[in-house]
Amino acid sequence: MTHAPLTGLRVLDLATLFAGPIAATMLGDFGAEVVKIEHPTRPDPSRGHGPSKDGIGLWWKVLGRNKRTITIDLSKRGGRATFLRLAETADVVIENFRPGTLEKWDLGWPELSAVNPRLVLTRVTGFGQFGPYAHRPGFGTLAEAMSGFAAITGEPDAPPVLPPFGLADSIAGLATAYAVMTALAARDRTGEGQVVDMAIIEPILTVLGPQPTWYDQLGLVQERTGNRSANNAPRNTYRTADGTWVAVSTSAQSIAERVMRLVGRPELIDEPWFATGAQRAAHADVLDAAVGSWIAERTRADVLAAFEKAEAAVAPIQDIRDVMADPQYQALDTVTTVDDPDLGPLRMQNVLFRLSSTPGAIRWAGRPHGADTDEILTELGLTEAELTALRTEGAL
Question: Contact, 134 vs 125, CB < 8 A?
Answer without folding.
Answer: yes
